[in-house]
Write a structure and sequence with these properties.
Blueprint (H helix, E strand, L loop, with lengths): L2 H9 L7 H15 L25 E5 L10 H15 L34 E5 L22 E2 L7 E2 L2 H11 L3 H8 L2 H4 L20 H8 L53 H7 L9 H17 L4 E3 L2 E9 L13 H5 L3 E9 L10 E4 L25 E8 L2 H8 L7 E4 L10 H11 L3 E5 L2 H15 L5 E5 L22 E4 L1
Parallel strand pairs: 6-7, 6-10, 7-9, 10-11
Antiparallel strand pairs: 1-2, 3-4, 5-6, 8-9, 11-13, 12-13
């Protein structure tokens, strides 16, 4: 296949085709045919054995096997550039016109060596602005002049609609620019996961609204069981009659933790690799996408070094879990705490405004694991495993803000730990009285957030109230969710439960 024919083939993909799907199809075809092929990518979810790690959401990537690129391909590249611009509502003028074999990506000087690994396809990388908000929006006298395509040349983390707005915003941005540049330098570290699952090519006429939907469909769990709330297609919390009934993994028993582990935990788990090895799960199992909730709780308990107390002759841990949202439709995943804390009764008070009013005060008892799809598997036995008799997870739902409901909650549950996943402390003023109350009662509190900047801003808010530095400094959560989240304000990487910090 000639270069121009390959480009034409790629551009003939339906308009609904996602960039990630396009890059996977064209790159894999290039590997098979050895012919120069065009690939378009605009998603951090792209996973391909031929694609270098530098393919990210802010790039359009053109893939050509080494040695086959020549000036003859320049018209095809120009046409592809214009097509990609049309697809993404950006201006092709913002992309370089030169037909170079490779270009630098991200902020900083052009590297001396090409950004691809040995035996990998070289890529032409062109910066691509996604649908970002202008950082000066609302601060400048003039309204924004279209899409925010102009990125800060120093940090690369924020975008502007025009040079004038960038100039206006500098008096605010100059204090954060170096910090954001440091955060941007951790992109590769945060995107490193041991898993081998990826988005598989689907029919080109798919109508799924997001890359997350595409991923879930590729593993055949879209809108099924525990996975229903993992994308924008899922139900609203208020529409669910019983929050305890969604307890299916909808996959083979070899891919999910539906029964007891072969052996108890003998040493603290420090990574997803440790957990998967302990649970005898293959790295192509996608269960980490949901299990980041209980594993983050486990990790926070390890950080806090909290000891269990005795209640009615049993070891007990009381957790006050603040601000639950999506996890309210995934409560069955907390059954994994049975395996992580054998012989312990965990009482988790789920407190937040997202709890449906009709569910306020509801108690959900978990004594067995979420089921796999194998009908004759032992996980479907009506009798709980014998050695789980002294283990249990009890969840109780409380609607409202923590500082408003605390006096009612502690009548039955004095907390060992307060946990606030994806808290957004700096974004919601309602956190201020809650943090003040936590300071007064002196209970260890751990927070998580989607990105490092949110964690930094939260730490500033917390320290301004407590007058003390963080008790647990900001650090990467090894059990963050392995699928990136969208961020319309910053280019910095975001993952659910990405960073952990505490007071």
């Amino acid at each position: 296949m000639a270069g121009s024919e390959a480009v034409t083939s790629a551009l003939a993909l339906p308009k609904s085709t996602s960039f990630a799907l396009a890059v996977r199809l064209t790159v894999e075809n290039a590997c098979l045919s050895g012919a120069p092929l065009l690939a378009l990518a605009a998603s951090s979810d792209v996973q391909c054995s031929a694609a270098p790690s530098c393919v990210r959401s802010e790039h359009v990537a053109y893939a050509f096997p080494a040695g086959n690129f020549s000036a003859a391909h320049a018209p095809a590249v120009d046409a592809a550039r214009d097509e990609a611009a049309a697809r993404t509502s950006t201006s092709s003028a913002m992309w370089p016109k030169e037909s170079k074999l490779w270009l630098s990506h991200g902020p900083g000087p052009t590297p001396k060596k090409p950004p691809w690994k040995k035996n990998k396809l070289p890529f032409l990388l062109f910066p691509l602005s996604t649908a970002m908000e202008c950082a000066a929006k609302g601060l400048a006298g003039e309204p924004c002049a279209g899409v925010a395509q102009r990125r800060c040349g120093s940090c690369g983390a924020i975008a502007y609609c025009s040079k004038d707005h960038q100039f206006v915003h500098w008096r605010f941005h100059k204090e954060e620019c170096a910090r954001l540049a440091t955060q941007m330098s951790r992109i590769d570290v945060l995107s490193q996961f041991p898993f081998t699952f990826s988005v598989e090519p689907l029919a080109l006429n798919h109508t799924l609204p997001s890359m997350r939907c595409l991923f879930l469909e590729s593993i055949k769990v879209h809108l099924k069981g525990l996975w229903k709330s993992e994308c924008i297609c899922g139900p609203e919390i208020t529409s669910v009659e019983d929050l305890s009934i969604t307890a299916e993994w909808n996959m083979e028993s070899s891919l999910c933790p539906c029964t007891e582990p072969e052996n108890p935990v003998t040493r603290p788990l420090a990574s997803w690799e440790d957990y998967y090895q302990w649970r005898s799960l293959p790295l192509h199992s996608p269960v980490a996408v949901l299990l980041h909730w209980p594993l983050t709780l486990y990790h926070c308990l390890q950080l806090s070094r909290i000891q269990t107390s005795r209640h009615d002759g049993h070891a007990t841990l009381n957790i006050h879990y603040l601000g639950p949202e999506k996890e309210l439709l995934q409560l069955a995943v907390f059954a994994e705490l049975l395996a992580l804390f054998p012989g312990v009764h965990l009482r988790i008070e789920l407190v937040g405004p997202a709890v449906p009013r009709s569910r306020d005060g509801e108690v959900v008892n978990i004594s067995s694991y979420a089921h796999c799809s194998v009908q004759n598997c032992g996980c479907r036995s009506s009798t709980a495993p014998e050695d789980l008799n002294s283990s249990a997870v009890t969840l109780k739902l409380w609607k409202g803000l923590y500082h408003e409901r605390y006096s009612d909650i502690v009548k039955d549950s004095n907390p060992h730990l307060i946990l606030a996943p994806n808290a957004g402390v700096a974004a919601y003023p309602s956190w201020m009285p809650t943090i003040e109350m936590i300071r007064e009662i002196g209970i260890p509190a751990i927070f998580t957030d989607f990105c490092e900047e949110a964690a930094h801003l939260a730490s500033c808010c917390i320290s301004s109230i407590t007058g003390q530095p963080l008790g647990v400094p900001i650090q990467i959560n090894p059990f963050r969710q392995p699928i990136a989240e969208n961020n319309s304000s910053l280019y910095i990487p975001c993952y659910s439960n990405c960073f952990v910090f505490g007071m």
